[in-house]
Amino acid sequence: MRLFRPMGADRDDDAALLRSVAEGDAQALAALYDRHAGWLYARLARRCGDPDVVREVLQDTFMTVWRSAGSHRGGEAGGWLWVIAARRLVDARRAQPRTPSALAQPPALAPSAEEHVLAGLEYADVGTALDRISPELREVLRATVVDGLTTREAAHLLGIPEGTVKTRAMRARRELREALAHLASGGDALGGLT
């Protein structure tokens, strides 16, 4: 199981694998799983602290791929897989009982040095600018823009009202534009404090 998303020529391989999965090829599904499960698990684990839920969501994701590989339109397979996984995570959270302990938010973890480097590699200046906005705003942007969730899905995933998601998204976009403008005007390119 690879931890990072494949690059370059693997995109064509993914499309071929998905065509084979659509035809009922279980070995193609296994190859797709081996290629993508690692990074999907890592991203899901960042969104959900319960490893059992993450494993269940990962399994549900690939079951959905098995059933609907024929609906893949030939774009980036990684993005398609992530949208499926993110929506399965929302579904799993909806199914969880709403007890006071389930509503309590876990303490926010400080990003590791590796996460900062990976964010810079994955998102370049946008990743640096994202690091400069507040965590609440950053999570809303990641849920709605990066993960492609609807406002309702993001609200459920983050445990906040839909109106709050919309407000935070608007503020996040404004602050992100300001942070990108600061970087473009000669601000520090590797992140850090302003």
Q: Which short descriptors sum up this protein?
A:
Arc Repressor Mutant, subunit A; sigma factor activity; Rna Polymerase Sigma Factor, Chain: A; sigma factor; disordered N terminus; 194 residues; mainly alpha; DNA binding; disordered C terminus; RNA_pol_sigma70_r2; transcription regulation
At a glance:
GO terms for molecular function: DNA binding; sigma factor activity. This is RNA polymerase sigma-70 factor. The chain has 2 domains: 94 residues, Rna Polymerase Sigma Factor, Chain: A, CATH 1.10.1740.10; 72 residues, Arc Repressor Mutant, subunit A (Orthogonal Bundle), CATH 1.10.10.
Structural class: mainly alpha
The figure for the number of domains is 2
**CATH A-level architecture of the largest domain:** Orthogonal Bundle
Provide mean pLDDT, rounded: 77
Number of helices: 10
Query: Could you spell the SSE succession in H and E letters?
Result: HHHHHHHHHH
Description:
By secondary structure, this protein is an all-alpha fold. The protein folds into 2 domains: 10-103, Orthogonal Bundle (Rna Polymerase Sigma Factor, Chain: A), CATH 1.10.1740.10; 113-184, Arc Repressor Mutant, subunit A (Orthogonal Bundle). It is built from 10 helices and no strands. The chain has helices at 10-22, 26-47, 51-68, 77-95, 100-103, 113-123, 125-132, 135-146, 151-158, 162-184. The longest helix is centred in the C-terminal third of the chain and has 23 residues, at 162-184. The N and C termini lie far apart (38 Å). It comes from Streptomyces formicae. This is RNA polymerase sigma-70 factor. It holds the Pfam family Sigma70_r4_2.
